[in-house]
Amino acid sequence: MQFGYFFANSVIIPQMKLNNPLGDLHPDEFLQQYWQKKPVLIKQAIKDFSSPVSAEELAGLACDESFESRIILEKDGQHPWELKTGPFKQDDFARLPATHWTLLIQDIEKHLPELSYIIEAFHFIPDWRLDDLMISYAPEHGSVGPHVDAYDVFLLQAQGKRHWKINTQIDQSADILDDTDLKILKDFSCEQEWILEPGDMLYLPPGVAHYGVALGDCITYSIGFRAPSHRQLLQHYLQTVIENIPENAFYTDPNLDRQQNPHQITEQNIERLKQTISDYLSLDKELLKYWAGTLLSESKELFQTDGIDEQTTLTEFIDQWQSKQALYRNTALKFLYIVDDISINFYIDGQVFNATTELSQQAEWLCSAVHINYPELGHIEHRDALLSLMYDLYCHGHYYF
Ligand code: SIN
Ligand code: CO
Predict the structure, then answer these.
(1) How close is the Cα of 154 to the center of ligand 2, in Å?
(2) Radius of gyration over every alpha carbon of the chain, rounded to an integer in angstroms
(3) For ligand 1, is residue 71 a contact (CB within 6 Å)?
(4) pLDDT confidence tier of residue 11, bands split at 50, 70 and 90
(5) Most buried of 7, 244, 279, 280, CB within 10 angstroms?
């Protein structure tokens, strides 16, 4: 298949809303029965679903350097299961074989806010657990090989058919193939299998081996989740604790008893050292909130914002908004908040933004609106507090016109 080339910003997708993406399965039942427990195939999870992005558009996006794209060639590459990383050129697509390859584009909703509605449909799971929307295109026999992922994933069939086989007994410790950059299972046997058609969706908890092969031209959407590793949790927590320790705080021992054996580290020494660190690990509630907010709102490196706009004044910001009408949220970032009786803190891109509790009512709306038209503010309570928060966020690059 030969692809036309065009740029990401030429993709125009109508803004839509999906209600329950689980078909007849209620989200509560899904969470009780399946989430993080066992796979489930949902036939017609999203009835009449068709991919808002075509294969040709995906190829165009893969040629844009701001997108993270990969091509996996099972055959006819330099070796079996060759992994090529983008950006690609039009010629790269012209040279591909007719079958046995897959194009994958990661984090696509972060570049194309028009696709946020797909991710938002999965909001029965907290937003901080969502990782990305990955879209794959494959011709006949295209596959990324049998493998195991460490994360939960919903595999939504968007165009054509894919034959999925899974095995819940094979885990991440199973042998993988040598001589490829991919973690492909050496031995895969099928325990359950299905042919997915557009609108069908397969949910897999972490650690279930899966193998999907395209039956003709095929587009699959992977709504992937993330979970911090225990190492990451503790590393970030300790970092947060350390940042709060005054530099001039040192170990003290004012009640030192004379030691018989000066080379010995005694029980008492250990006890005093333990006391010193355990005072810091007392899991203070406020510190825990700050730690959770900054950690869970962290962005992938590619999407991190830097630099602050110190030029624009609040009045100029409001004037611009009035004249341009729509202000867009940077959908590449997570907008999270923690609220209690006395404060509300917004956490974006690993940073905290304080606001007054009067904005609690607006928090969910603010964090989910993809764009806000200036006239919408007319109905909003505590408009000034909101404007000043949004101005701060705008200056940090979290909103744009
Ligand atoms: C694909 O879309 O081909 C692969 C998705 C996955 O296995 O996670
Ligand atoms: Co996978």
Answers:
(1) 10
(2) 25
(3) no
(4) very low
(5) 280
Strand 371-373 with 326-329, pairing? antiparallel
What angle separates helix 383-395 from helix 314-324, to the nearest 10 degrees? 100
Here the tokens at position 188 are 């895969």
Instruction: Check if 141 has its Cβ closer than 6 Å to any atom of ligand 1.
Output: no
| pLDDT tens-digit readout, 197-251 | 999 999 999 999 999 999 999 999 999 999 999 999 999 999 999 998 999 999 9
Pocket residue to mutate for ligand 1, from 72, 73, 104, most atoms within 8 A of Cβ: 104
Mutate to test the pocket of ligand 1, among 161, 182, 220 (most ligand atoms within 8 A of CB): 220
Residue 14 has pLDDT above 70, yes or no: no
C-alpha 314 – ligand 1 centre gap (Å): 46
Report DSSP letters for 191-227, one per residue. SEEEEE-TT-EEEE-TT-EEEEEEEEEEEEEEEEE--
Q: Which atom of ligand 1 is nearest to the CA of 212?
A: 3
Q: Which atom of ligand 1 is nearest to the CA of 136?
A: 2
Closest C-alpha residue for ligand 1 atom 1: 136
Q: Is the CB of 220 under 6 A from ligand 1?
A: yes
Residue appearing with tokens 């699959």: 220
pLDDT tens digits along 179-194: 888 999 999 999 999 9
Residue 392 has pLDDT above 90, yes or no: yes
